[in-house]
Write a structure and sequence with these properties.
Layout lengths: L2 H7 L4 H15 L10 E2 L2 H5 L7 E4 L7 H8 L7 E5 L15 E5 L7 H5 L3 E3 L7 H6 L7 E6 L7 E3 L7 H7 L2 E6 L7 E2 L2 E3 L5 E4 L14 H13 L5 E3 L4 H8 L8 E2 L3 E2 L4 H6 L14 E3 L1 E2 L3 H7 L5 E3 L2 H4 L2 H5 L4 E6 L2 E3 L4 E2 L2 E2 L2 E2 L6 H10 L4 E5 L11 E2 L8 E3 L6 E4 L2 E4 L5 H10 L3 H15 L7
Parallel strand pairs: 1-11, 2-3, 2-6, 3-4, 4-5, 6-8, 8-11, 9-17, 12-13, 12-18, 14-16, 15-17, 18-23, 19-24, 23-26
Antiparallel strand pairs: 7-10, 19-20, 20-25, 21-22, 26-27
Helix pairs in contact: 8-9, 15-16
Length: 461
């Protein structure tokens, strides 16, 4: 293992962690900005401040600081470098140099799967709600943070733009802050303001941030969306992610009333419901009247919508993903997807066997938060089959599969064939319910497997 990882793996003492947090907090908060102004330099000059053996946080999702990463990758004098980040919507050029850079992923995005599988990176299994705590406690505090921020306002504050989830705790705890100041980064509201004087060096860029336009929906995804929409009552508080199924759900909610949104992230599909007044956030308990989120990924239309928009409140993941805060809202509907579900209700969402494809993210945070909510509806959804036609509802999960949502946390499961509520059902009842929403081609075999497993000849009436 790289020496940098060994060094940072050592557990901090409570006093040392407190010193890290205290000194960082005094330096980085709104009311305690340093008097000095940052150096305005080139990207190459900015990253020349980074030493070998450093842990470098990379601003994630749509806010990847590509200019700084290009300059960092070009430094062939560096060794034992650890990169810490959420999923990155842009390519990371440093991964082309595994002899110098090791990626420590808080969430494994599509671009990092091969690196993790090849041992050129790894994954830290941790709830999104606890990622800020890892940094603030000193256990995983970065030495350097590379950021992509909006230009300063007349008071001298930039914002963290489209990703605050882990960027805020990184800003609070890193010893060195380096940023791209980019007019294409939306100026967001909430816990996203950072004084310009907190940075050590800044680089002026004019690069577009990464956009992801919504793709077309399949008939299967539309059917799943309709089944989920039928479960959502007026006045519900929504959590959804990005992709065809969330967009299919949102497209079915145009006649709903007084919906709210408290989510870790969202995309373009929510905009029409906000603009039409369907989502007015009027019945939420936490931050009534505002959409609460920790990051967004979508088209330029989305980034324009959140720019300086007081209706949208960005907070770090320790707030947005806190199950108690989530559950304080009424009728929370949490919508999360998965890779497979076994007939007892165990949900695999982060791997295909031993091959890591994503991470836990906020799934458990929101499934639990919805369960705590008055009238809440935790939902796991998936197509009934994989692309090769094999069933996603299985007798047992494949060896090495990660159980993300346990059989104790799972409530509703939805496929294109319907929705079933497993809460309070025994093993026999769960198997019968799940088989009823499996693809018809697989139901007979699944039933045989269930009968053999539970030593029964037929379902009880």
């Amino acid at each position: 293992m790289l020496s940098a990882l060994k060094r940072h793996a050592n557990t901090f003492s409570a006093s040392a962690a407190a010193r890290v947090v205290a000194s960082s907090w005094q330096r980085r908060t709104l009311l305690a900005a340093r008097a000095a102004t940052p150096d305005v330099v080139s990207a190459e000059e900015a990253v020349s401040r980074i030493e070998s053996g450093s842990r470098v946080y990379i601003h994630g999702a749509a806010c990847v600081p590509t200019r700084l990463l290009d300059a960092l990758a070009a430094r062939d004098d560096l060794t034992d470098m650890e990169l810490l980040h959420l999923h990155l919507e842009a390519a990371n050029p440093c991964t082309a140099h595994p002899d110098r850079f090791f990626s420590n992923n808080l969430f494994v995005g599509a671009r990092e799967r091969r690196n993790v599988a090849n041992g050129q990176g790894s994954y830290i299994p941790v709830f999104l709600s606890e990622m800020p705590r890892l940094m603030r406690s000193g256990r995983l505090a970065p030495d350097v943070a590379l950021l992509n921020v909006s230009p300063p306002d007349k008071h001298g504050f930039v914002t963290l733009g489209a990703e605050v989830a882990t960027a805020l705790p990184a800003v609070e705890t890193a010893r060195t802050l380096i940023a791209q100041i980019n007019p294409n980064v939306p100026r967001t509201r909430g816990s996203t303001f950072v004084p310009l004087s907190a940075f050590d060096a800044v680089v002026h860029t004019d690069d577009p941030i990464i956009s992801a336009a919504p793709g077309p929906m399949t008939e299967v995804e539309e059917a799943i969306g309709r089944h989920i929409a039928e479960l959502i009552p007026d006045g519900a508080t929504l959590q959804m992610g990005i992709g065809a199924v969330p967009n299919a759900v949102l497209a079915c909610l145009t006649n709903h009333k007084h919906l709210g949104c408290h989510t870790e992230m969202w995309s373009d599909g929510l905009i029409p419901l906000i603009e039409s007044g369907v989502v007015d956030n009027s019945l939420k308990t936490y931050q009534a009247g505002r959409v609460v989120t920790s990051f967004v990924v979508g088209s330029q239309k989305l980034y324009d919508f959140v720019d300086d928009n007081p209706q949208v409140l960005f907070q770090d993941a320790s707030v947005t993903n806190n199950p108690v805060i989530i559950g304080s809202n009424p009728r929370v509907v949490a919508i999360n997807s998965c890779v497979a579900v076994d007939i007892t209700g165990q949900v695999c969402s982060d791997s295909v066997g031993t091959y890591q494809v994503s991470g836990v993210g906020g799934q458990v945070d929101f499934e639990r938060g919805a369960a705590l909510s008055d009238g809440g509806i935790p939902i796991i959804c998936m197509p009934s089959t994989n692309k090769n036609g094999t069933s996603k509802i299985v007798p047992t999960l494949a060896p090495g599969s990660g159980v993300v949502t346990t059989r104790y946390h799972v409530h509703w499961v939805v496929t294109e064939y319907g929705a079933v509520n497993l809460f309070g059902l025994n093993y026999h009842q769960r198997a019968k319910a799940l088989i009823s929403i499996a693809h018809p081609d697989h139901r007979e075999e699944l039933e045989r497997d269930a009968f053999e497993r539970y030593n029964i000849d037929a379902w009880r009436a």
